[in-house]
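A common beginner's mistake is to predict each chain separately and then try to dock the pieces by hand. The better habit, illustrated here, is to supply every component at once so that their relative placement is modeled jointly.
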Amino acid sequence: MTMPGLIRSTTCYLGLMTVLTGLVYPLAVTAVAQSAFPRQANGSPVVLDGAVIGSELIGQSFTGPGYFHPRPSAAGADGYDAMASGGSNLGVTSQSANQTITTRLQAVRIPSTRVPIDLVTASGSGLDPHLSPEAALYQAGRVAAARQLRRERVEQLVRDHVEGPTAGLLGAPRVNVLRLNLALDAQTAD
Amino acid sequence: MRPDLTQLCVYVAGLMLLCPLLGIYLSRVLDPKAGPTPRLERWLYRCCGIDEQREQHWSEYLQSLLTLNVGGVLLLMSMLMLQGWLPLNPANTPGMSWHLALNTAVSFVTNTNWQSYAGESSVSALCQMLGLTLQNFLSPATGIAVLLAMIRGFTRVNTDRIGNYWVDMTRSVIWVLLPISCFTALLLVWQGVPQTFDARIVATTLEGSQQTIPLGAIASQEAIKMIGTNGGGYFNANSAHPYENPTPLSNMIEMLSILLLPGALVMMFGRMLDQPRQARALFVAMLIPLLLGVAICTWAEQQGNPFLIAAGADPAGGNMEGKEVRFGISGSSLFAVITTAASCGAVNAMHDSFTALGGLVPMVMIQLGEVIFGGVGSGLYVMLIFAVLTVFIAGLMVGRTPEYLGKKIEAREIKLVVFAALLPMPLGTLIVGATAIAFEAGRVGILNPGPHGLSELLYAYTSATGNNGSAFAGLSANTPFHNVLLTIAITIGRYLPIAAVLAIAGSLANKKRLPVSAGTFPTDRGLFVALLIGVILIVGALTYFPVLALGPVAEQLSATAGRQF
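With all components supplied together, the output reads:
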């Protein structure tokens, strides 16, 4: 093939492939996805009294004593900024990182217990919607006191919200913090 | 059974089941026995003025490949620089700087998908969909094309023709990458990955603050990102982001997607050669180092951070900094090893926050040359080069002219092997990497102090040269200095092997086939597998041990001794 011919073929090929992979492919997947799985395809929003309060999959910040707190977040300056996903990227031998985490740890530590590690470390996305069951149970005392509920009742609520490994095989047991706090609100309203 | 073992068993079983099946399909659609060209293909060739019947000499094959790649870089680079003026830009993202656009374009065209930027804030919806997705398809197709040419080098005799680049590309995109991606994308949507043209959700949280959550056509890009071992994420957090990877099941689907094609192409190789045992030997030689890496990485991450354990953290949790609860230690470590063994580079946990030993494993996986399954196509063609090197070394030991798959390996091939497998990785990782460290401009972007800082830089240049794309993301790489040097490393790591492999393919296709004799070294037995793994590990160890000793090894010893930086 001559050089001008080759350049013409290349240009045409890039154009046609752009249409096929950049337009036809995503449009076709969107069409099927929107009709087969509309909730997931639109980001699994959670609606309360007609207003969108977040997404089931995206963690959000909770700071009040009456709510279960999510993990620390390195997404954005204040954490849980969904426009700035990411982790701290700090390593194990970083003194400043270890100091920050130790300060968090001392703030939540109940004397003579060991603190669940996910409660004091930032996730990879900064948007982790989950806590380990241990990390949620660790906060039950504080939440129960702030809500003036019996501690056993709050602990039971956590246990009711534990999602096990998928099919008993994949992933770690976890609790969705937004779902748990919604249930907590519903229970207190009763 | 322990959860990490259960998951590994599910994974390996899935791979063993899917790869041979897909291998059958691949050999049918990529190497069809004579028959009419399907209409869609024929129409495409007519439009572009391509004569699909005409086979190419290796140099012409390479020329077509380079032209399409250069064209792709120019197209993508101009789109990224001009995105501020182009439509479909709901967030009013401005155009990229020339050096970021160059780095991003070369990175996506070469299947590296290193990202010096954060996807949610730096790339418009138009560029994500039209620009990046196109290269997500074309770059693995290029890998498959070069592999097909290499295989023809072994299957053909006395010819200087090794196939037609355009035909190999087109078949790979239309019959392999597109259908598998459509299916995978829908599986991912089912699990919760968004696929919409809405730009965002604006929510008022339970505590009353505003949260803006970006959406988009994420699942379609996510699917080809894994299937094509691309790895370039829609979001900055990549597959750690709950919208890219929402559940443990989606995590399993993504991990299987990464090694699906690299594994299936090995099986296809066996069928095209009509010697499935040869392919199985290579598959095993890939699987053993992979499992070894998974074991070490998982163990290291389970040990946790000794400084935090001393401060009162529960040691049972392991090292959870930078990891997601839904994947846990085992789902994160397994993903990290798979994504670096294949030249994928997607991450579901931040490798920078791994323990020193846990972070060493992904780095070594890349440094071994991306042959532990490796990238789509590229993994196997470089593995075949290592196989040639292994029979050459075995031949030296017994004083016999080496041969592989019936082709005599002579001086010309061995010289080319140096350029295909031995030279590129050290050149990009060590020479270009050392240049980066030598200048102040290269060191300012380092986030972590102490030996971990060296690991950050080393990882960046390893990842670029290996066309992997994952990062110790603490390094701020979006500077003219790093963007340009990384582009050089990426180019060396991609095109030096491709040119040498095509030259070898041309040279092998020209030879006659030797009959198997009593003196032939059997390359489908355990002895060969052991030798091959040995050659890969020894070449890697000799090249990288000194620099690894200064980075991750020094950090691990410091952590054990209780020293922080």
